[in-house]
Amino acid sequence: MSGKIGVLALQGDVREHVSVLAELGAHPVEVRCPEDLAGIDGIIVPGGESTTMALLLDSAGIRSPLADLLGSGMPAFGTCAGMILLAAEVLDGRRDQAGFAVIDISVRRNAFGRQVDSFELDLAIAELGHEPIHGVFIRAPIVERAGAGVEILAAVDGRPVACRQGPVLVTSFHPELSGDLRLHDLFLKGVG
User: Fold this and answer.
1) Active site residue 176
2) pLDDT digits (tens, 9 = 90+) for 144-154
3) Which end of the chain is more exposed for a tag (fewer CB within 10 A), N or C?
4) What is the pTM of this model?
5) If we measure between CA atoms, which residue out of 86, 109, 12, 103 comes closest to residue 56?
6) Candidates 17, 163, 174, 184; catalytic one
7) Exposed, middle or buried: residue 64 (CB in 10 Å: 0-12, 13-18, 19+)?
8) Catalytic choice (80, 144, 163, 184)
């Protein structure tokens, strides 16, 4: 894989995603301004703090051009806060918190609790084979509603934590922190 993959680099786990992409043979591009979006084939919206990231999207002038790219079908992978920003609806966000609405899910922020309630758990994702993937959940969101076109890849206690719809993949957890490259690889296969 030699495509240019943007990593939204305003806040969050940027370095970890860049490292995984490079290890998989992609060409990561840190996106901090609208010009950084030029020529990318897909984008990763990392974990971090969703409200802060939403404000930084506006102050950096990235929201509108990124919305145009996502609206035209550019592949995206959102982890934790990235899931929140890509979701159609945030049930407990700020009134002025606008996302990209490119996956038909409703999410609840910090659904598993505060920072001290963070946890790790092995998850079965059939498409990744028999070996479970290690999920790192840090103030993680949960999917409360998934639309008819959304494929649920993994769940915790019957509640979705990994979903896909067309070229958009989202997780409540942080695969970039687990050392397991398979979800990033799955995303990159969808970029090709």
Assistant:
1) yes
2) 999 999 999 99
3) C
4) 0.94
5) 12
6) 174
7) exposed
8) 80
